[in-house]
Amino acid sequence: MLNRIQAGKKLIANLQQLSSRNVSATMQINEKIMVKAETKNEWNRALSEAEKIVGYQTSFLSLRYLLSDEVTNLALHMRKLVGSTHPLVSTGKSLIYGQNNMQTWGLIVLLVSKMAGHADGILESEQDKSAGVLMSQRTLAEVVEMVRTANMIHSSGVLNLQHLQKSGNDLSFDSDLIFGNKIALLGGDILLGNASTQMAQLKNQEVVELMCTAARDISDSHFIGDRDVQNNPLPWDPVKRAEEIRNTTDIESEVQVDEIDNKQPFNLRLMLGGPESEWTVRHTLANGTLLGKSCQSALMLAKQPVELQRQAYFFGKHLALAWQASMDLEPYKTELPLGHKLSLISAPILYHLQYDASIYDEIKKGMESVDDVNYYKIHKEVSRGPGIERTKELQSKHTLAAMTELYKFPKSDAREALEKIILAMQED
């Protein structure tokens, strides 16, 4: 309890420094964070209340999707995988029950849409007055969910059954796993195809261009840094990093490209700047720009000013990064369950590598497959090091940045719902 209160007070101090120009806003944040520091996580309640504000559940798994032939057939085929070791099973569970659950990002896009409102001159036929958003914004929310879910299915639900060095072997004994790969690829492709169709129906070239750059960023995130044969990411070698830093100047002082033009590709040299730089670049590409550009696109559809669109982008980006830091901390709140894996590019591990590079010897065992890594050993070492506290500071940093952008919007029930979602992500 004492640690939670201290963490709450620390975040409050940071908020007071950056929000001093708005005393009333600072007082509101102080009260809410102190309450959060002393209570349990109210994640589900925050989502439930937010869904009421925008009218109804936002998940793309609506009746018209559940009754489609494609989804029905996929669901029937996926039942055959239950009980198998195919990763699509665990990916599906995490999408539905975990903090990655599918409706949440679409919900955030709709809350931002309602919070910002829309410009005068929008036809009444384009408005969903009961929810306070535009019909095009609701379509965009569904697109965001489909793109994010398809990416998770393709990246986590496909198993490399035959390494390049062992190609040509008989795989008939792996029929269930082959079948699972086919379902994962097909399922992800169906979602991407539907997302592309719906995006085209928006008939807004600027929005389509911006969302396409988000898809490019996601693709880039899968091709940076070392990977094992299953394409699972591995952290940067701390020895190589030190050598690169000695030969490179002013990496940390470089400005993130999205501060100037968020349609341009990111400079991957920033990954060399340290654990925070590596983590930020990886997860901004994988998650941050999708949520950020979705919020920005929502305001584009509402014909809001460019400055307001930029605020929405940075709110979404920092919220996604605070969310990721929160998920990175989850495995370290308890003992590591038997057979459980850790993300080797999570913030606690990256920070610990800076503190003690010796655990990289264990991580290197995952070059062939991350299954060869002793996760219990890494969990034990990281839990005793400074990586946990550094990650909490990282989460507070992006929470603060998201709240700062949020408080630039006028007060409303939608803004309050977004506050509750942000605070629900704070450590229990």
What would you note in describing this structure?
This protein has 428 residues and is mainly alpha-helical. The protein has one domain: Farnesyl Diphosphate Synthase (Orthogonal Bundle). It is built from 18 helices and two strands. Strands 1-2 form a two-stranded antiparallel ribbon.
Give the CATH H-level superfamily. Answer: Farnesyl Diphosphate Synthase
Largest sheet: 2 strands, antiparallel
Query: Helical region count?
Result: 18
Radius of gyration over all CA atoms, rounded: 22 Å
Tell me the strand percentage band. under 5%
Output the helix-strand order: HHHHHHHEEHHHHHHHHHHH
Global shape: globular
What average pLDDT do the residues reach? 78
Helix content: 55-70%
- The termini sit apart by 9 Å
- Residue windows where pLDDT falls under 50 for at least 5 positions: 18-23, 33-40
CATH class: Mainly Alpha
Question: Largest beta sheet: what is the strand line-up?
Answer: 1-2
GO molecular function: prenyltransferase activity
Organism: Polypedilum vanderplanki (Sleeping chironomid midge)
Protein name: Decaprenyl-diphosphate synthase subunit 2
InterPro entries: Isoprenoid_synthase_dom_sf
